[in-house]
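U., I forgot to send this yesterday:
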Amino acid sequence: MGGGVLKPAFANIIGQELAREILLKAVSGGKISQAYMFKGPAGVGKRTMALAFAALINCRDAGPDACGCCPSCKKFASNNHPDFMEIVPEGAAGIKIDQIRDLKRKLSFPAFEAAHRVIMLADIQSTIRRPEVANSLLKTLEEPPADTIFILTVDEAAETLATIVSRCQVVPFYSLPFELICRRLEAEGVEPETAAVLSKISGGSLGRALAPEGRELLELRRQVVELSVYDLSGPLPIPELLHLAETCAELKDKLDYFLELLGLCLRDLMLLSIPGQEHRIVNIDLAHLYQGRRERWQLAELSDRLQALSLARKQLRFNCDRRLVCEVLFLRLL
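Result:
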């Protein structure tokens, strides 16, 4: 089980009109599939849509949307419905075989109260690389219990087993427009300038834009970029960069995301070196800092720094010393 409290209503989901249309048409036509695959980027509403769909098909007073007031809807809204099961990956290896076995055991019993028991298996892209788990999941999809609906979520770029895809109706999800994310952030009380930056760097993911670590890391990102565009006539800012490397090392699990943000800064610089591409930069609040660097690095040099960044992220996945990785990387960014 996982996730926070969400109000399960299609009306609360921004964007994803095609996914909404597919699911509502299935409900209105009485042709609900026993297995769906929600495929698209992370943080664009796949889980929220799954909850809204599960709430609607079990609502006791449903109209075009779930009523939000009946006992079933209230349980979905509080993330406490006994017939909605969410199986999430345990670490980088994905969903484990014991989780699938436990699911099968629970499915041997009837639903508690719902007309449609809904099982959501999240982020299966890692799971299906393990044959024993994929085969066990496939068998469950081939022989589903009555009145049980499976929803599998998968990243858009991930390879999926054809045998699993063939058992599911694929529902596509897409990156959200910048304007929609920006308006949502402002509605959440985020300052317009910050909302604009977070929307740009989110890559179309509302979940990423809303994540607290996004706002926490913006200032640290600015400090690193500011030191990287040092004045050539002055001394190298080595002590300051080493201090920042120590600060970044203390980010722990957030460090990889922070390095991804730095990668976006390097991408911006590459775009600025190409005539007519200035409008595509995403770190719009750093544009004034970029001006001091755009003439100093050529595309080949920026490419070298992106490779250094990629190497640093790879080293972190192999549990190399975070402080040393950051120190070496920041010195190579000069």
